[in-house]
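Dig into these lines:

——
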Amino acid sequence: MATFIPLDWELIEISGPDAQKYLQGQLTCDVNALAAGASTLTAHCDPKGKMTSIFRLLKVSEQQFFMLINKGLFTALDALKKYAVFSKVTFTPLDWQIVGAIDCHCGKVNPQYRLELDEQRAILLNPTALEVSLSDCTEQWAAADILAGLPHLTAATQNEFIPQALNLQAIEQAVSFSKGCYIGQETVARAKYRGINKRAMFILQGTSSSLPQSGSALEMQLENGWRQTGCIINATQYEGKLYLLAVLNQEIEVQTALRLPEDHSPLQILPLPYTLA
């Protein structure tokens, strides 16, 4: 049975004769190579290569795009628009319905745009309300994103990580190493070709009843006790389990003992659904 979950995101239309050219010089993905009708996660970085935002970009045509961004990062739009004054491109917030669909394989729901994420999930975009029954279990969608290894930045993690620290090089078409220059490109390329990035994002699962905050640390067991390590990117509770995305040393062993500082509940590292390059 299909489940429809309202997503509390911002939808921005990016349009104009220079839309594709402008985005190509700003984002980590290869906007030129993205097919019309396709979407991908992508990032916008500061000059040091640290990400100010991660969002989903839908390409309708070379002159029309849509971006789906976490509402908590809406101010990051200012950074993306910083040089738009010199180009023929506009950014327009849209008051559309944004719905996450799980196990929706029938043709009875016809949004204006349907962004397929995998065999089970899609994002539906429509200028008016769809005739579907909405679930209030947003935790189900958050847990699915975590288990898919798809990160969302928050205010606490903005400008803290390069794309590779959150595995973006392995996700969809999020990072291109052949597209040429964009803001932060030198740092991102150096991390790949000189091996300077020592961190990666991992999926963790536990049974704690607490919900840790984005940007907070975990604890790792050493021979002489426990010490803080890593950084939590996203966390949610769903069906009695705690799911986390956290940045850790990329060489960490799967059997490493990890726990939450709040209640000392243990955490288990789960396999990633993609291969890290």
